[in-house]
Amino acid sequence: MGLLAAGVAQRKGYPRVFWLIWGLIGGTVAFVTASRLKPKTDVF
Prior knowledge:
This protein is mainly α. The protein has helices spanning 2-11, 16-26, 28-36. Helix 1 (2-11) packs parallel to helix 3 (28-36) and helix 2 packs across helix 3 (28-36).
């Protein structure tokens, strides 16, 4: 589940390493949280 959470978060623009660690600790909770994140947008 940690790899899935990291992959979803990375596609949405969030740091992969942070979500990989969070996913390995939190498992399903991290995956659900990453799935509900809104994509980051770069505002200049």
